[in-house]
Amino acid sequence: MWKSGFFNSINGEIFQGLISDGVYESVGNKLAVRPQDGMTIKIDTGRGWFDKRWVENSSEYLMTLESADVTLNRYCAVVIRTDRTERVRASAPVLKYGAYATSPKKPE
């Protein structure tokens, strides 16, 4: 189950400059991304700090990749996206795909 937090302050950022983005090495399985059957990947347990927000995954989180092309390759990145709208105020993993190509480039 994904959790995220520190959304109470709308105008100020109390932790800016104190904590840098990244995954905590000592919590859970470090949010490791691992292949599963077929086009499924698993994000392991762990905790991190992204975009001035904390995230925590306390159980295996499965995501399904789009189907592959028959002849061309492409990269897919797992990123943490933050929705700061007052209605949502949460961070969660999303898949970001690069373009199909004979020499693919990583998505930005």
End-to-end gap = 27 Å
Strand content: 35-45%
The residue fraction in helices comes out at: under 10%
* Silhouette: globular
Counted by DSSP, the helix tally is 0
Number of strands: 9
**Main β-sheet, in a few words?**
4 strands, antiparallel
Coarse structural class: mainly beta
Provide the low-confidence segments as ranges. none
Strand order of the largest sheet: 1-6-5-2
Topology as H/E string? EEEEEEEEE
> Using only CA atoms, what is the Rg?
16 Å
Rounded mean pLDDT score: 88
Walk me through the structure.
By secondary structure, the protein is an all-beta fold. The protein is 0% helix and 40% strand. The strands form three sheets. A four-stranded antiparallel beta sheet has the order 1-6-5-2, with no helix packed on it. A three-stranded antiparallel beta sheet has the order 3-4-7, with no helix packed on it. The chain contains no helices and nine strands. A hairpin with a 4-residue loop joins strand 3 (33-35) and strand 4.
Feature tags:
108 residues, mainly beta, four-stranded antiparallel β-sheet, three-stranded antiparallel β-sheet, 9 strands
Give a brief outline of the structure.
With 108 residues, this protein is mainly beta. It has no helices and nine strands. The protein has strands spanning 2-5, 22-23, 33-35, 40-43, 46-50, 53-57, 61-64, 76-83, 90-97.
